[in-house]
C-alpha cells in the first residue's frame, strides 16, 4: 500500500512538472522572448562560426523583455537584410556582438548608417558575430578575400579582445605560434541540441536570464571578489610578438594598403566610469591588465605601420557631456544604441574621406 502511494505521489509530481513546463512554454511563445539566434552547422566552404543562414530572429534583453528587436540573417549567416554578392567590391566591417548588433534594427547599426554618410558608397558587408575576438578578424581574411573585394576594412576592438583570443571556442580562431592564428574546428549540433535550443523556455533561461549551469546552482550573477590594491601586469614577450605579427599581416591578408584598415577602439569600462557619480572621463585604467597592455601595443604598432586608429571613447564622452544622453542601452544592455553607432559611423566616414583626399592630393602633385 505504501509503495502504491509513493508511485502515485511520484506520478503526480512528474505530471505537475510536465504541466508547468508546457504552460511556461506556451506563455513564453506568446511573449517577446529571444528567439532564432542559433549557430549554424559547420560548412567546409565557410568553417567559421556564424548564425543559421536565411533565418529570422528576435532579440530581447532581461526578464522583462527589454530592447525588443527583430532581424534577418542573410545567405552567409550574418545579420543583414540583403545577400552579399560574390566578387563584389565592398566595405568590410568586423567585430563582435557590438557589430552584429542584434539588439538594434539593422538601419540603426554602423553598417546600416555608413552607406548613407558616404557619397557614391560601396555596399557595406557586416561580418560581426557575437563572441569574436582579435584572431577572428585576421583568420576571416582568406574567406572574405576569396569571395569579395574589400575596399576598406573596419575592425571594432573592445576590452578583452586580446585575452579572449586564447579561448578554445569551436568555430573561432585562436592565437597560435605560427601562423599567428588558427581555427578551432566547429561542432555539429545534434538534433536534440537543435530541438532544445528552439524551445522558448530554453531561450528565455539562456538568452534573457543569462543562466548557465552555474546560474541554475545559484552562482550566476554573483560578482567575484576582487583583491584590493593594484598588482601591475606585464606583457610577456610572446604576447608582444603576437601583437606585432598581427599588425604586420593584417593589411596584407586583406590585400589593402595600411591606411585602408581602420581599427576603432571602444571601452565599456570607460563608459561605465563616464556615467558614474563622478561624471568624469577616465582616460586610463588605474591598474592596467595584460589585455590593456596588449591593446595599447596594438595601437602603437598600428600607427607605426600606417593603419588608421580611431578612439571612440573620447567621442562618446563628448556626446554624453553635451547632450546628457547615453550612447548605449545601459543599464539594461551595454551595447551601443543608434546614437553610438551613428557617432562611430560618422568618425569612420571622416577618416575615409581624409584618406581619399590625401590620396587625390598626392596623385595630383605627382609629375
Overview in brief:
With 367 residues, this protein is α/β, with parallel strands linked by helices.
Q: Give a count of the beta strands, DSSP E runs of length 2 or more.
A: 9
Give the % helix: 40-55%
Individual helix count: 13
Following the backbone from N to C, one meets helices and strands in this order, namely: HEEEHHEHHEEEHHHHEHHEHH
What best-fitting shape do the alpha-carbon axes yield? globular
Termini gap:
105 Å
Overall structural class, as computed from helix and strand content, comes to alpha/beta
Average pLDDT number: 87
C-alpha-based Rg, rounded:
23 Å
**Relative strand content:** 5-15%
Arrangement of strands in the largest sheet? 4-3-5-8-9
**Main beta-sheet strand count, sense and barrel state:** 5 strands, parallel
User: Uncertain spans, ≥5 residues at pLDDT below 50?
Assistant: 213-228, 277-284
Amino acid at each position: 500500500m505504501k509503495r502504491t502511494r509513493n508511485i502515485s505521489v511520484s506520478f503526480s509530481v512528474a505530471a505537475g512538472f510536465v504541466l508547468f513546463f508546457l504552460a511556461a512554454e506556451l506563455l513564453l511563445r506568446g511573449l517577446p522572448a529571444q528567439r532564432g539566434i542559433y549557430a549554424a552547422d559547420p560548412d567546409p566552404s565557410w568553417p567559421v562560426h556564424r548564425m543559421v543562414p536565411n533565418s529570422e530572429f528576435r532579440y530581447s534583453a532581461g526578464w522583462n523583455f527589454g530592447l525588443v528587436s527583430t532581424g534577418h540573417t542573410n545567405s552567409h549567416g550574418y545579420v543583414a537584410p540583403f545577400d552579399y554578392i560574390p566578387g563584389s567590391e565592398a566595405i568590410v566591417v568586423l567585430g563582435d556582438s557590438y557589430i552584429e548588433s542584434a539588439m538594434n534594427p539593422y538601419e540603426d547599426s554602423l553598417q546600416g548608417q555608413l552607406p548613407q554618410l558616404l557619397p557614391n558608397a560601396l555596399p557595406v558587408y557586416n561580418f560581426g558575430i557575437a563572441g569574436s575576438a582579435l584572431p577572428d578578424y585576421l583568420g576571416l581574411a582568406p574567406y572574405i578575400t576569396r569571395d569579395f573585394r574589400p575596399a576598406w576594412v573596419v575592425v571594432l576592438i573592445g576590452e578583452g579582445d586580446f585575452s579572449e583570443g586564447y579561448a578554445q571556442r569551436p568555430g573561432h580562431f585562436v592565437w597560435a605560434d605560427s601562423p599567428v592564428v588558427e581555427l578551432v574546428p566547429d561542432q555539429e549540433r545534434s538534433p536534440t541540441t537543435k530541438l532544445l535550443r528552439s524551445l522558448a523556455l530554453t531561450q528565455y533561461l539562456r538568452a534573457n536570464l543569462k543562466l548557465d549551469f552555474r546560474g541554475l546552482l545559484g552562482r550566476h550573477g554573483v560578482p567575484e571578489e576582487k583583491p584590493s590594491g593594484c598588482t601591475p601586469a606585464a606583457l610577456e614577450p610572446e604576447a608582444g610578438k603576437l601583437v606585432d605579427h598581427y599588425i604586420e599581416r593584417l593589411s596584407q591578408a586583406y590585400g589593402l594598403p595600411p591606411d585602408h584598415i581602420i581599427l576603432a577602439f571602444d571601452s565599456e569600462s570607460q563608459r561605465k566610469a563616464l556615467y558614474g557619480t563622478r561624471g568624469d572621463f577616465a582616460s586610463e585604467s588605474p591598474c592596467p591588465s595584460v589585455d590593456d597592455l596588449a591593446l595599447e601595443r596594438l595601437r602603437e604598432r598600428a600607427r607605426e605601420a600606417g593603419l588608421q586608429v580611431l578612439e571612440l571613447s573620447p567621442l562618446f564622452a563628448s556626446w554624453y557631456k553635451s547632450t546628457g544622453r547615453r550612447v548605449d542601452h545601459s543599464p539594461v544592455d551595454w551595447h551601443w544604441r543608434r546614437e553610438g553607432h551613428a557617432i562611430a559611423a560618422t568618425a569612420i566616414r571622416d577618416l575615409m574621406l581624409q584618406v581619399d583626399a590625401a590620396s587625390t592630393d598626392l596623385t595630383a602633385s605627382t609629375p
